[in-house]
Amino acid sequence: MNTPESLHVQSVSFSSLKAGSRLIVLGAVHGNEHCGTRAIRRVIMEIESGQLGLVSGSATFVPVTNPLAYARHQRMGERNLNRSLEPTDTPIEFEDRIANWLCPLLAQHDVLLDLHSFHTAGEPFAMLGPENNPGPLEPFARSAEETAWALRLGVSRFVDGWLDAYAAGVARRLAAGVPAREADVRYGVGTTEYMRAQGGIALTLECGQHDDPAAPDVAYRAIRNTLAHLGLAAEPRPAPASGAGTLRLYQVVDRAHGGDRFTRDWASFDRVHAGEVIGTRHTGMPVTADRDGYVVFPNPDARPGQEWFYLAKSSARG
């Protein structure tokens, strides 16, 4: 049996002799999300065999970012690596030790592509960072670069507003007296938020449902398109997606009890109408939509106290 002490982490780096962007690509930040791992290993093989070469910059690939969760075929090892991501002098959980390795590695790069998948059915989409702002929550000044890159990943659906929605959820958790970790805005900081705080740009690509046979191809196309867009590979730069649409997360709803149940099998981007019942608490109380919008990231297996689903609305973001 794999134990935390018996596991290792691996990163594979390739560098051109010409200066350029420093890209890092992550797979299996969550251990049951394998599409990124498969796509990364395919690209590594292509570079090593000479089918693909770097003409500028560098590319680092981490096929399995959380080896404990990956070995156990589950979302997390001892906690969610993609929450509260920061180095610590007092590591306790396995993911703390991964963070102490991963965060300095991220800081050595200026572009991050983090490859994920999701629980239920739905089309692939990219999670955008915030628009340019000087605010205290997630200040950012490279929105135009990040958006131009997102449009070339190979998907046409985009979602933003992650940390704002998470901060609103934290306020509700504080009012409800939930444990301190989940009631801290910093708990919403994952790989992309950390990367932007280091001055880089970063995107999370949700490649499809965990077991969707097309998801590894979505991840692979995104890596190849990113290499071309950044000028790291001598390939035609991809055209931007046409007819792209953006939704903004505005609310996170936690699963309070193991008996909380959805009313049906929701998929990301299913439409909901104001007053529509999305789920039922174990007490029988209905959970309804407060406005017309969309369900995103529904997770029927969420642990009590964790995110159950998000609600999104249409965004005017260009």
Outline the biggest β-sheet. 11 strands, mixed
CATH superfamily (homologous) name of the largest domain: Zn peptidases
**Number of domains in the coordinates?**
2
CATH fold-level name of the largest domain: Aminopeptidase
- Unreliable stretches covering 5 or more consecutive residues: none
> DSSP helix count?
7
* CATH classification, class level of the largest domain: Alpha Beta
Give the secondary structure arrangement, pairings included.
Elements (H helix, E strand, L loop, with lengths): L11 E4 L6 E5 L8 H15 L8 E5 L4 H6 L21 H14 L3 E8 L6 E3 L15 H8 L6 E4 L1 H15 L14 H7 L3 E9 L5 H15 L15 E10 L6 E2 L7 E3 L4 E4 L5 E3 L4 E4 L10 E8 L4
Parallel strand pairs: 2-3, 2-4, 4-7, 5-6, 6-8
Antiparallel strand pairs: 1-3, 5-7, 8-14, 9-11, 10-13, 11-12, 13-14
What does the model show?
By secondary structure, this protein is of the alpha/beta class. The protein has two domains: 8-243, Aminopeptidase (3-Layer(aba) Sandwich); 247-314, OB fold (Dihydrolipoamide Acetyltransferase, E2P). Helix content is 25%, strand content 23%. It contains seven helices and 14 strands. The protein has helices at 35-49, 67-72, 94-107, 143-150, 162-176, 191-197, 215-229; strands spanning 12-15, 22-26, 58-62, 111-118, 125-127, 157-160, 201-209, 245-254, 261-262, 270-272, 277-280, 286-288, 293-296, 307-314. An eleven-stranded mixed β-sheet has the order 1-3-2-4-7-5-6-8-14-13-10, with helices on both faces. A three-stranded antiparallel β-sheet has the order 9-11-12, with no helix packed on it. Strand 11 (277-280) and strand 12 form a beta hairpin. Helix 1 (35-49) crosses helix 7 (215-229). The protein is globular, with a radius of gyration of 19 Å. The mean pLDDT is 93.
